[in-house]
Write a structure and sequence with these properties.
There is one protein chain. The chain has 98 residues and is α+β, with helices and mostly antiparallel strands. 28% of the residues lie in helices and 32% in strands. It contains two helices and five strands, in the order H-E-E-E-H-E-E. The chain has helices at residues 3-15, 59-72; strands spanning 19-25, 32-37, 44-50, 79-83, 89-94. The chain has a five-stranded mixed sheet with strand order 2-3-1-5-4, with helices on one face.
């Protein structure tokens, strides 16, 4: 698990509920997760997901679920795009106790 994956898990656990927001960039040069933190206190301000797939026919949504499931070592069925299906700002729901 990489440093950003550990930060992602820590952020999700700190939320203490089953949904979290992400900002998605489709058509990126590489699939990756970037945790944006506040320089002053190190708190997570935003989770940015970059996926190489285009935002058409739900392809980017499937790619972010695949990316998150791999990073968090969870089955894809335990993650769902709850809100923002056609938006760059999305709410992801976790269907498994953290």
């Amino acid at each position: 698990m990489s440093k950003s994956d550990n930060a992602l898990w820590a952020y999700i656990k700190a939320l203490n509920h089953d949904c979290f927001d992400v900002h998605v960039t489709p058509n990126a040069s590489a699939n990756k997760i970037k945790i944006v933190t506040n320089d002053e206190n190190g708190c997570v301000e935003q989770i940015r997901l970059y996926v190489t797939t285009p935002p058409e026919d739900g392809k980017a949504n499937k790619a972010i679920i695949k990316l998150l499931s791999k990073a968090l070592s969870l089955p894809k069925t335990s993650l769902e795009v709850k809100r923002g299906g056609k938006s760059r700002l999305k709410t992801i729901q976790l269907h498994q106790a953290v």
